[in-house]
Design a protein that fits this description.
169 residues, mainly alpha, 7 helices, 0% strand
């Protein structure tokens, strides 16, 4: 396979990864909004709540937050203190940002490993209302960390050069 064809294939896979990530978040946010709306109407119009909606939407929020972190990283939307980096010469600044990115990757891998351990540890417990394994909501943390690590890895050079992209839905 030629180098340009391989690069095109990787770019296509990356776009697919970003698109799937976006659509999972869109679907989760859409169902969350719909469920909360239906529950509010049910509560105030019919005087009856859907008891599992609050718990389920809380778990969705955890997943949405962690799955969306990688997309926010691609666009440079995370809070960062860059005043000291910006005072450095451009070449050194880029090297420092590579070190920061590697530290972030180490943190995300550690978060994923420990998150999977916690999810496994809590798997035999059940959530109070829905009665699913408690590990299911906890899995949002390590899976989100791995997704963010993949986003960072795919955009490592752009991150180091402080070139952010706009991700369209």
């Amino acid at each position: 396979m030629s180098e340009s064809r391989a690069a095109g294939t990787l770019a296509t896979l990356e776009r697919g990864f970003v698109t799937v990530n976006q659509w999972v978040i869109i679907l989760m946010m859409g169902t969350m909004a719909l469920l909360v709306f239906v529950n509010v109407v049910s509560r105030y119009v019919f005087n009856a709540s859907i008891i599992w909606v609050e718990e389920f939407t809380q778990y969705q929020m955890i997943w949405i937050t962690y799955l969306g972190a990688g997309l926010a990283l691609r666009e440079g939307r995370h809070v960062a203190v860059e005043v000291f980096q910006d005072m450095l010469p451009p070449g050194l600044r880029t090297h420092v940002r590579y070190v920061v990115a590697l530290a972030m990757l180490a943190f995300l891998v550690t978060l994923a490993v420990l998150g999977f351990r916690i999810a496994q540890f809590t798997w035999n417990q059940e959530t109070p209302v829905i009665n699913i394994p408690t590990g299911v909501p906890y899995l949002g943390v390590p899976i989100g960390a791995l997704v963010m690590a993949l986003h960072l890895t795919l955009t490592l050079r752009a991150f180091a050069e402080k070139r952010y992209e706009h991700v369209d839905a």
